# Entry
Amino acid sequence: MNTSPTSAAFEKASGAASPGKKCIYRAIVIGAGASGLFFASSTDLSSPDPSTGAAGGLILEHTAKPGSKLLISGGGRCNFTHAGSVKDFPAHYNNGTFVRSALYKHSNIKFTEFMEDLGIRSVTEKDGRIFPECRRSAPVLDALLKRSAANGFTIRTGTDVTAIRPPEGPGRPWGICVARNGNGYPGNDGCGAADEIFFCENLIIATGGITYPATGSDGSLIPVLQRDLGIRFTELVPSLMPLTIAGDPYRSLAGVSVENAAMTIEEKSGRKIHQASGPILFTEKGISGPAALNASAHLRPDAVISLSLIPGISRDQVMRSLQEELKGRPQDINTTSAAAARLFGLPKSLTRILAERSCGAGSSPSLKSMAGLLTADRLPLDQETLSFSGKSSPAGMCTRGGIALDQINTKTMELRNAPGLFAVGEVLDVDGETGGYNLQFAFSSAQAASECVNGKLHG
# Structure
């Protein structure tokens, strides 16, 4: 990593900054999203540093409001973690094994206890997802903001970080140049100039990924981190997004759901890449729902999906069941679709489409074809909409890719070659499945960084 004592970009930016009061903080967090607020609400900086006089913490947010993406998490209900053994959690993440220690130490149980301490009681749904008892994100954000303020943090919205300078020597601070962008207003932190430089003992990068740009998760800080600090990023692409099907045969079913389905990502050769199970929702553009979103994280170029509407039952078993159900009755579209709906608890509108598709060139459904569609309907993906096509918009729920983990001490989230610099949450090359796993990692990584910073400040 480039940690040279001077940065040309910093010097240029600082030359245009208002001299004003020199603000030195014990910690500055860039990004007022979930991970940044988890850090601030866990790190008590309410007392000044007795040796340097550095006081409190500052959160820099370049949108007008903090926590915008947190407010829409879980459909606005804030599914913040998942039930079960934390030892099962790493398997639900890309690069989960690399951050296993943080997940284990700052687990789902620790997270629910943390929320309880904030006054947020939790409830577990039958599928294992854990929500606030109120099932609303706003009280969670309010509680985090109040705790952060009590810990000595102020928030400055509407600010863009334009340059960062590493410490010029042991015991020297980080320098951060910021510029007002018109999206917010300065906080009551004693520094009111429009373009300023802030200094801090610890710098926490919590800027998220590239999805939902309107919430601030837009990747705008990445060029600064690469230019000024030499931080390496893996490729960033949207993840956890609905699947768009080429020539979608289910388009007319928009709004219809299936409670339990399995989606297998396969190569054209038929080799299995990944399987995800759970509810699905047919949309005007394809298939959404937890199973589809989780499957999307494992897509490859030219992959196809195999959709099973009745997981765990073989094609031959399904065909025999249909034959028995239709014995002595006409085998037309109406009776075949009705029989499949009764036998397998599927919507009649769905089984009718399957019966029509199984007719082939004839007028009567083939039970063998019908059984095949019910158990393994291979559907081609619209390659134009996939993240690796280069033509998609950042429409995923989270980002795959980020700061390469070989630069990170994953027990503390501190960059190995830059003491005092931390990265937490979605900005790292870690992404989880839907179901609370991404907010869990935001919490676990923020707690790991907070524990390290608290140890430095109070040890």
